[in-house]
Amino acid sequence: MSDHNVFVTESTVAGDDAGPLADRTIAIKDNMSTEGVRTTCGSAMLADYVPPYNATVVDRVLDAGATIVGKANMDEFAMGGTTETSAFGPTENPAAPGHVPGGSSGGSAAAVAAGDADLALGSDTGGSVRNPAAFCGVVGIKPTYGLVSRYGIVAYANSLEQVGPLATTVEDAALLLDVIAGPDDHDATTHDRAADSEYAAAADGDVDGLSIGVITDLIEGADDDVVETFEASLDELESQGAEITEVSLDSLEHAVQAYYVIAMSEASSNLARFDGVRYGPEGDREGNWNDSFAAVREEGFGPEVKRRILLGTYALSAGYHDKYYKKAQDARAWVKQDFDEAFEEVDVLASPTMPVTPPALGESLDDPLQLYLMDANTVPVNLANLPAISVPAGDVDGLPVGLQLIGPKFGEETIIRAASAVEE
Amino acid sequence: MTAQAVEPTEHAVVIGLEVHVQLETSTKIFCGCSTTADDDEEPNSRTCPVCLGLPGALPVLNEGAVEAAVKIGKALEADIPERTTFHRKNYYYPDLPKNFQLTQYDAPICQQGSLEISVEGTRRAIGITRAHLEEDPGSLQHKGGSIDTADATLINYNRAGTPLVEIVTEPDFRSPQETRAFLAKLEGVLEYLGVFDSTRDGSLRVDANISLVDSEAVDDDGSIDDDALADANRTEVKNISSHKGAEKALAYEVTRQKNAVRRGRGVETETRHWDESRGITVSMRSKESEADYRYFREADLPPLEVSHWKEEIPIPELPDARRERFESEYGLGSEAASKLTSTKSVADFFESVAESFDADLAATWVADNLLGELNYRDMEITDVEGRLEEFTRLIELVDAEELTVKNAEEIVLREMLDEGEAPETIVDREGLGKADEGEIEGFVTEAIEENPDAVEDFHNGEDGALNFLVGQVMQKSQGSADPGSVNELLRAELAE
User: Fold this and answer.
1) Could you read off the pLDDT of B92-151 as tens digits, one per residue?
2) Global pTM?
3) Interface subset of B 223-252, CB within 8 angstroms of A
4) What distance in Å separates residue B236's CA from the closest CA in chain A?
5) Domain range holding B402?
6) Taking CB atoms and an 8 Å cutoff, what residues of chain B touch A52?
7) Cα(A184)–Cα(A148) distance, rounded to whole angstroms?
8) Vertex B21: Cα angle to B19 and B22 (nearest 5)
9) Is residue A409 flagged as an active site residue?
C-alpha cells in the first residue's frame, strides 16, 4: 500500500469467485458498515465500533466478486472537504503530493489515484465523491437520490446523501454503479428505475448532438485558471459535436446556505445516538445521564462535528425553525425548480467540479466559512436530488481540475456518455 | 356594616387524555422483528440493527400498522388525510435507541374524530383531536434502587419499535368517571377492530391533563371558554395504565387541586406521576420550560398516500351498532344489550349461546350469571376465554332439565370459576343430577306420611301448608327436584 494514509483499517474481505467485479480490488469509505470490520466514520467516537451487519452496497460489491482491501479514510462523519477532520490523521493527495485529496471521501479517491485499489465507494452529501475525484484526478459519480441503497451508511444528512463509485475511468465507475444501483427492501427511498441498468455500456463517447448548458453562476466564483481548464475541455466536447450554451440559475446563490442549514439540522439528529451508552470512549463519569452524555460527546467528537451539531440544533429550535430550517427547505424547492426548468432547454449542465485547485495540507482548516464556500458547485446537485459526475478535465500547474456534468433525475446514462467523451 | 359572605367559587373539572395503545401487529413498526414477547426471552434478543438504532440502519414502514391506525380512524369517525408523513421527535433518553423517536407531527393518520360515551344513562360525544403512529422506546430496569438511587440502569430494547397509536382527545371530560367510561369504551372498540390486546402488559398507557376552571366559564352545552382554559394551571398525570386507574388517579387529583385552591395555594402547572400502589399522585417536575423537540420530517420514510385506504379497509360491526342490533334482533333491554356488547368476546359468546337457546335464557346466563360471578371474583371474560364451551354445556344441562337452575347458578357455575372444573365433573361429584320421577314420587309419599298436621292444614284450605310440604320434598331430594313439578305431584297425591 502507498504511504498517503489512505486507509483507517486495512482488511481483506474476499468476494464471490465470479461476477462483473471478479479480480477487482475495492476500497470502502469508512462510513459504510462492514460486518466484523470496524467502521469508524473517521471519528474517535466509533474507533472501536464493529458492525454486526453489512451495508447493502458492501454485500453487492462482494456478491459481484470484488475484494475489499480496506476501509478508506474520510472527514469525521463526512463533515469536511479535505479529509483533514479525520481523527485518524489527514490523507495526502497521491496526484498532488503535499496537497489535500479533497473530501470527505478523500481516502476513497486517493486509494484509486495511488493504485491501492482498482475501485472505491464514497458517499456524497454535498460533493463528497465529486470533490475528491476532482482533486485526485479520478472519476466520481453522485447518483440520483434513491438510485443506490443507503442501508448501512452511517448517516450524516440523510435527505441529501447517496453512495457513489470512484474509478480511474468513466467506464469502470459506471460498471461499479451498475453493481450497486437498484431497489433495496431495507431502504424505502430506493427506486425501481435502476433495476436493469446498463451504465457501463453508456460510456461510448458519443456526444454528437448533445446540448450542454454551462451554469454561468458557478463560473463566476471559480479561479481563473480553473475556468480556463474547464473551458478547454468544453471546446473538446464541442469539437466532437456537442452544442454548448449558457444558462443561469438564480436560486444557486442561496444553495450553500440552504445546504448547510439542512445538512447540519439533520446531522444534529442523526448523530444524537452517539451518547456513550453504546458507543464512544468509556469511563466513569460524574453526574446524571445528561452530564454523562455531554462528557462523552465533548470527548468523542472533533471540532467540526461539534460545530455542525450545535448549528443544526440551533436551526431546528423553536423560534428559529421557521427562520432557518423552513427557509432552507423553501430554497431547496426553488433550486429543484430551477434545475427542472433548465433541463427543458438542455440535456446536461456543466461547471467546474471545484472552484479551486486542491489546497496544500493544513492550509484551509482554520477558516470554516471559506471551506463551506468551496462546495458552491457541488451542493446544488444534492439539494435537487440529481445525478452528477466529475471527470478529469486537465490540470493547473500539476494540480488536477475536474469537470462536473449534471443530468436530470435518473439521467445517469447521459452524463456517463458525455463524461466518457471528455476522456478521449 | 355587615360582613358580606364571600361565595366560594364553584369549580368545573376539565380533563383531556393522551392514550398510547400498542397495536397488535405481528412485526414491529419499522423492522421485521416480532412484537410478541416470549415468557422467558433474554433482554435485547428480539432486536435487529433497525430497532437497535445501529449506525446506518434505516426504517421501513410496516403497512400493517398503518392499516390498524386507519381502522381506528374509521371507528372514531376521524378524517384520514390524502398522505401521511413521519417526523423525528428529538430528545435524549437512554431508552431511546436513536435519541429521537419516529412519530407523526403535522400529517397524522387520523384527525378530528369523536367517540360517544354513556355515563349514568347520559350519552356524550368526546372529541378526538388526532391519532398518530409512533414507535415505542425500549424499557429501563433500575438495579439496586429507584430511578434516582439505582447503582446501575439496564436497558432492554425488546420493546423498542413496537407500533403505538397515540390518541389525543379534546379537553371534553368533565369528571374522572367520564374518563373511565371513555377508556373502557375505547378498549372495547379497539378489541372489536382486532388491533389491540388488552392482556398484554403495558398495552394501554394514559397521560391526563387536568385543570379546574370557574364553573361560570362552562356553557350549558358543556363547552368551555377558551381563555378560561388557557388561564387555568394544569397538571399532567402520567403512568396511568387502565380505565379503573384513570378514574382513581383523576379523582385523587381533583381533590388535591380543590384543596390546594381552598387553602389559597393554587394549582401549579407540573407533571405528576400516578403511584398506583399508594393511590396518590406525586410531583415529577415543574413545567416552567416546555421541552423543545425540534420536530422535522423523516426523509428515510417517503410520504405514504392513504386517501384510498379508508374505502378499501373494512371494519367490523362496532359496539354501538351491535348493541342496537341486539335490542332489535333479540328483543333485549338496553341495559342487557349494553352489558353484552361492551367487549367483543362477551358479545360473540352471547351470540353463540343464543344460536342454540332462547335469547332470554342466553341473556340471563351470560349477562347476569356469568358476568355477575366473574365481576364478583374480579375476573374478566378473557380469563375464561378458552372455557366458553364448558359454559355452553352448563346451560345445556339446565335447558335439558338435567340440572336445576338453582344448582346450576349457586353451585356448578361458582365451582367452575373457583375450581376450574368442567360442569359434568361438579354435577357428578356433588350428586346434583336431577332426581327421576319415581324417586320424587317416593319423597312425596314420605312427606305426606311424616307430616299429618300439614296435610290436615292443607285440607282446611291453608295455602302455606303446601309450600311447607314442597320444602320437605326439596330437602329430601337435596335440591335436585323441580319445585313446580313437586307442587303438582303433591296436589295430585293430596287430592286422592
Assistant:
1) 999 999 999 999 999 999 999 999 998 988 889 999 999 999 999 999 988 877 766 778
2) 0.89
3) none
4) 22
5) 319-430
6) 49, 54
7) 8
8) 160
9) no
